[in-house]
Amino acid sequence: MRIAVTIWEDKVSPLLDTANKLLIIESETQKQVSRFEAFLLERDISRRCHFIRDLNIDVLICGGVSRQLSEMLMASEVKVVSGISGPAEDVLDAYLKGELLDSKFFMPGRRH
Description:
The protein is α/β, with parallel strands linked by helices. The chain is 26% helix and 29% strand. Helix 1 packs parallel to helix 2 (67-75).
């Protein structure tokens, strides 16, 4: 499984539509086996969607995302988990442990 997190410095970037970088990990049986970063240079959302799809991302975790980009990604079979904040490493660890929906990772104002 390939999991991507939008990152800004060491935290989850607040908006996928304007994020510059993804941290991508490969996982097997809930453990990281490799990682790399990819730069999001495309500003056009359809091109951005194609770029993310071409990275073979299964799950994309972000702070927020426009409805249009979210729908395009879901149509490309990328599961989008939005409304998440916090240090990127903590978020990835929580996702792998099945604990990401702990409210400490929610953006302000987000409900279950």
